[in-house]
Amino acid sequence: MTAHANGTVYGKYLKVKNGSQGVKNCSHYINDPAKTIPLKIPAPHDDAQREIFHLENALHYIQNDPKTKNPSTGRPLVSGHNCSPDTVVQEFSLIEKLYHSHKAEKLAPGQIPNQAFHIILSYKGTDTSPDLIHEMGREFARRLCGDEFQSIISTHLNTGNFHNHILVNAYALDGRHKFKDSFHVYRRFRDIANEISLEYGLPVFVNEEWKQRYRSWKEVISTEAGQCWKQDITACMEQSIDASSSYEEVLKSMEQMGYEVQRNPRTVTFKKDGIRVRDSRLGYQYTKEGITLTLAKQDRDRERQKIADEVSEMRKKQKKKRGYPSVYIPTYDRYGKRRSFLIRLLLLLRESVRQAMDEYYSASLESAAPDNQLFMRAEKKLALLDEAMTTADQYGITSPEVLDMKLRELHARLAPFCRDIFNLEDYLEHGEELKGLIETYRELLPDIKAYGLSPEDLTYVPATSLIRENKARLNPARPKTRSDLFKAVHDSGYSLTRKFNTLTEHEARQIIQAIEKGHTSNLPDGLVWGRIKGRLPQEKEDLPKRNAIDFKNYDAGAKEKILAFKAAADTLASYGLTDTQSIDSFLKDLSDKTKELDALKADSSFINFEIKELYKLKKSIDRFQKAVFVYGPLYPGNADSLKQSLTRLKNDGSRYDWLAVMKNRLDLLPQIPPRKLDSMEIPDGEEYRFIHDFFSYFPDTGQVNTADPMQVHLFVAKLKSDGFFDQEMKNAQRKQHSLGREKAVGK
Question: Out of 36, 374, 469, 612, which could bridge 31 as a Cys pair, Cβ 3.0 to 4.6 Å?
Fold first, then answer.
């Protein structure tokens, strides 16, 4: 064993936001003046000077920092990737300015852009060479950033764990794009760190930092200094939750700890020592819903622990320790039909349950936890196994890998339904409000006419642009449609005369179709042939003039009706609903959309039902393989025979079943004409999912650019012509037969 083989790798992935808490504060945190600045160079006392001092010199002085200096060589362990450690702050800033000279950040209101990403890789212990740790950090930066991004690598040696700090610029060197920030980035950097750790002989990741709540730099810094008020209040909350059995008890406990509890309609505010904070700002787990869920989980855990203790005591009193022989299920049944891997697994478990039956069963445990499959009678367990086999046969599930593929396919099929249902529900929610105004309008219209008033005199009709925006707000163009429209108009010779926020989904689709067909006349509203120079032309329109109304001639009841009518009429007019024809058309569309929503929900319900059934099967398969399920909750012996049976079955493998399913998927893939391939911007969905599953098992088969539809299609055609899966299935079958002969000889 090497000197560092027992080390443990930890990692963090933190976002550094732009502004006053950006790269400056990150560098302050990494390069604390008390540690990074030699004693002979005093830091400025003035706050403004100190900020400039840090910005220009903090990373420069890190080279003389005792934290980073290798004690054996005296060399500071600081390196730059695509940048100089001495001028990293200035270089990061220049690249950011280059990016903003080309484009603006696409941010939601109140959102702050990412300026850099701070990655920490910690290796437990100090028995590894500091130079080796630093070289691993440099290699990590090379693989993560490549030639696209800048980063600085600093190895800290002042703690009990040697660790690398890697600060990555969020803006690419070309000034055209940014570092992609998503959940998969953490997975990617963890994979890179694992590869490097294996290459250098160190262990891989064991922690799950990505599951922890994100902390701002202010919280990080104040936590290190022991002054984090949020940490104090959350610690008190945790203590109150652990000692309470209801939400009200939690609040009373917080009051006893000196916090003033202010109950609001939807939230609770805690006050202490001049600091006040809402529960929602502390995190979901500290809201009423989160605390209620935690308390319920605590109750379940206590009940489970109670049952576990009871099982343990009953096992100690159990004198019988009978052993059971291993079980083998042949690949073929008595009729010569091949059994799938999953069916063989379930048959093996069923036969194992029959061996023990209810010899180690306890009625008291089943009554304490009637829904727990592990404590059920053997008769119920056998029924569950039969149900699982029926489900597997019904949906063509032959192995766990096929089950995962089927679930991914169902989720892909369900996604468009979910998107359309969401859009329709949003439309109908707004539509119902307008429908209520229409009822008010029609109910009061006879009275308005009886007063000798004209609806046109009362109604204010806004500008056409506002009407279009409101219509588009009812049925907005989807993000994908907007993207398609932008691509269609770009370099096409056409120009849009309307903004995207004034186009409905239907209008945007009409414009896309007109561009694709190359029409130059009778174009849909919002599209013209030719390029428009400068800004979009402003539509000039003369709004109708209304006659003044003297309200002195009406009593209080009439005034109330007139004002209610006007409020409804003005709102309807802002959506273009000003006459009987437009109102009837809108109500018909509302009715049609309601029917469409019902149909979509009915269609998606079948997919949802199938997903639930398969998830139930997946969960059950995992539970069925436990010894407590097979032999009973009071079985005190070992489960070696069951493990041997399962290991032998898994050694046979489920490869053949997976290959058979993939071959069937390959045969069912649609034929795409070359003319359509030339115009496709993304691969066909079925082909793309097939390629994804294929390369997950055969990563070294070939190189295919999955973003190129032509390459994907040609690779699929090659697999068909070469009979790839036929050959692989023969090899898998040959391997199974050889394993079967070896078992027979062994017996």
Answer: 36
Q: What distance, in Å, lies between the first and last C-alpha atoms of the chain?
A: 39
Beta bridge partners of 582: none
- What is the per-residue pLDDT for 383? 94
* Secondary structure percentages of the chain, helix, strand, coil, to 5: 60, 10, 30
CA atoms within 13 A on the CB side of 15: 18
Interacting residues of 712 by C-beta distance below 8 A, sequence separation 6+: 683, 684, 687, 688, 691, 704, 705, 706
The two three-digit tokens of residue 728, written as one number: 């692989």
The 10s digit of each residue's pLDDT in 630-641 is 988 888 877 888
DSSP string across 672-686: --HHHHHH-SS--HH
pLDDT tens by residue, 171-222: 888 888 888 776 567 677 777 887 777 666 666 554 444 344 545 545 555 5
- Rounded Cα distance between 88 and 96, Å, is 12
Hey, what are 52's tokens? 């400039």
Q: How far apart are CA 72 and CA 130, in angstroms?
A: 9
CA dist., res. 601 & res. 595, Å (int): 10
Amino acid at site 606: F
Asked whether residue 248 carries a pLDDT value surpassing 50, the answer given is yes
Which of helix, strand or coil describes residue 429? helix
Which range is least confidently modeled, 118-122, 178-182, 290-294, 345-349? 178-182
Alpha-helical (H) ranges within 67-225 are 88-102, 130-145, 183-199, 217-224
User: If DSSP codes are grouped into helix, strand and coil, which group holds residue 274?
Assistant: coil
What is the residue-averaged pLDDT of the chain? 79
pLDDT at 7 over 70: no
Per residue in 115-148, pLDDT tens?
A: 888 888 887 666 677 888 888 888 889 888 888 8
> The tokens of 684 are what?
């066909």
- Residue 548's Cβ-count burial label (10 Å; 0-12, 13-18, 19+) is exposed
pLDDT tens-digit readout, 44-80 = 444 334 333 333 443 443 444 556 666 666 667 888 8
| Tokens coding 232 | 């104090």
Radius of gyration of the chain, Cα coordinates, nearest whole angstrom: 34
Per-residue b or e along 14-40, where b marks 16 or more CB atoms closer than 10 Å to that residue's CB: bbbbeeebbbbbbbbbbbbbeebbeee
- Separation between Cα atoms, residue 650 and residue 115, nearest integer Å: 49
Tokens (6 digits) for 31: 């390069």
> Whole-angstrom Cα distance, residue 426 to residue 428?
6
- Label residue 177 left, alpha or beta by phi (over 0 means left) and psi (-120 to 50 means alpha): beta
> How many Cα atoms within 13 Å fall on the side-chain side of residue 54?
21
Cβ atoms of residues 563 and 448 within 8 Å: no
